[in-house]
Design a protein that fits this description.
The termini are far apart. This protein is of the alpha/beta class and 289 residues long. Strand 3, helix 11 (194-205) and strand 4 (209-214) form a beta-alpha-beta unit. The chain contains 13 helices and 7 strands. It has helices at residues 2-11, 17-33, 38-45, 49-58, 64-75, 81-92, 97-115, 118-129, 143-156, 168-174, 194-205, 243-259, 261-277; strands spanning 134-138, 160-162, 183-187, 209-214, 227-230, 235-236, 239-240.
Length: 289
């Protein structure tokens, strides 16, 4: 973030009058500017859309969307919950909330599909299949994703630890014996969790393979990952949109499952007998009654 801000400040004297207006607005309101279209930003500061586009080019970007993405990626971890709500309110305006959020989630999945590294995905699948032990880690909103992975991986493998994360000390107690041959899957999205990052760094230092599911190459998790899985995540007010990350997780579970098909069939045959014996699921009513 400081690099971009410093660049704008250093080049400010050489900008045209209109570009200076854009620059000052970004410097003072970067949290809002990052989520404005070129047209909206131009209207807000009183310049044309083409002036906004030229401003982005002056800074060395291919166009305004490139500058906008750079701003978004660098600030999302810095926004407080209150700032998130303000930004989302500005973006949505008077539009239908249900339609806006669902369309945004669809866009996140499309972008993820276009951008995800297929080799990294396959590398993650291979690492999981060959792991001595698998540790799954995600806290706060990402705990929903880690719990989902843990539920299915416990059906697929006998060597899974879903790390419970009430405190930093508890995390390290649970991953204490991690080492070579083990795999740690860490999940975190803005605002990134220090606990998740610390545990992943510890695991890598101990010789384990590390898979990171996060949103950007600028994510701190990317620095410690052997296999980096990127999934687009956007903000819906103070809520994290985790639709695209969940889709990547679904794909990961299916890919791992397909490679262990015979074992999984045996497991589910046993489970079906257990579920039937202990009346786990509601049975359909007899249609003849």
């Amino acid at each position: 973030m400081n690099d971009l801000i410093n660049k704008i400040q250093s080049e400010l004297p050489g900008f045209s009058k209109g570009q200076k207006q854009i620059a000052r607005f970004i410097l003072e309101h970067y949290d809002k500017a990052a989520f404005m279209t070129a047209s909206r930003l131009g209207t807000t500061v009183g310049v044309s859309e083409s002036t906004v586009v030229r401003f982005a080019t002056e800074l060395g970007y291919d166009g305004y969307p490139h500058l906008q993405r750079a701003l978004q990626e660098m600030i999302r971890n810095k926004l407080t919950s209150v700032q998130r709500m303000e930004v989302s309110s500005d973006r949505m305006g008077g539009r239908d909330v249900l339609q806006t959020v669902l369309h945004a989630d669809m866009d996140m999945i499309r972008q993820t599909l276009d951008e995800i590294d297929r080799d990294a995905f396959q590398g993650a699948v291979d690492a999981l299949i060959g792991a001595k032990r698998i540790y799954i880690l995600g806290v706060r909103s990402s705990s929903a994703l880690s719990n989902f992975v843990g539920f299915y991986f416990n059906l697929l493998f006998e060597n899974v630890t879903l790390v419970h994360t009430n405190s930093v000390s508890e995390i390290f107690e649970q991953v204490l014996r991690v080492g070579p041959g083990d795999v740690v899957l860490g999940v975190s999205f803005p605002r990134y969790s220090k606990r998740t990052l610390s545990a992943m760094q510890y695991a890598r230092d101990r010789g384990a393979r590390v898979i990171a599911l996060t949103d950007s190459h600028l994510s701190p998790l990317a620095r410690v990952a052997d296999h980096l899985l990127l999934a687009r995540s956007d903000m819906a007010s103070f809520v994290d949109s985790l639709v695209a990350p969940l889709s990547v997780i679904n794909a990961l579970i299916v890919a791992v499952g397909m490679s262990r098909r015979e074992e999984i069939e045996q497991t589910f045959n046993k489970l079906e007998r257990i579920w039937e014996e202990y009346d786990v699921y509601e049975k359909p009513e007899d249609e003849t009654n």
